[in-house]
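Cross-posting from the chemistry board since nobody answered there.

I work mostly on the small-molecule side, so proteins are not my area. We synthesized zinc ion and want a rough idea of how it might sit in this target. Sequence and SMILES are below. Is it possible to get a predicted 3D structure of the two together?
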Amino acid sequence: MSHDLMTKCEQRCLFKINDEKIWKWVEVEVSALTSGEQTNIRCVHCHGRVRVHKQNVQHGPKDHVEHRVKRDSENCKGGHYFKGEHKMSQEPVN
Ligand SMILES: [Zn+2]
């Protein structure tokens, strides 16, 4: 197995506060996302770009996100390739 197994990510959601539209990052369960939903999400830990993977076999990996960039996986405590020193992504999604 060579992938990240993060079951949560952050999703940018639109809020309306005092008639003002404000985008905020909210932590969500990956299982609540649809597999086509690849935009407006990022890693909870390093804010790097992530990709949604849905569980497709009964005993396979659960719904999760993986880093799109291997360097993020190496530098993120949620990453499979984590080398031990957590850093924020060099190309964060803001
Ligand atoms: Zn990360």
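Reply from a structural biologist on the board:
Welcome over. Reading the output above for you: The first strand starts at residue 8 and ends at 17. The mean pLDDT is 90. Happy to explain the token format if needed.
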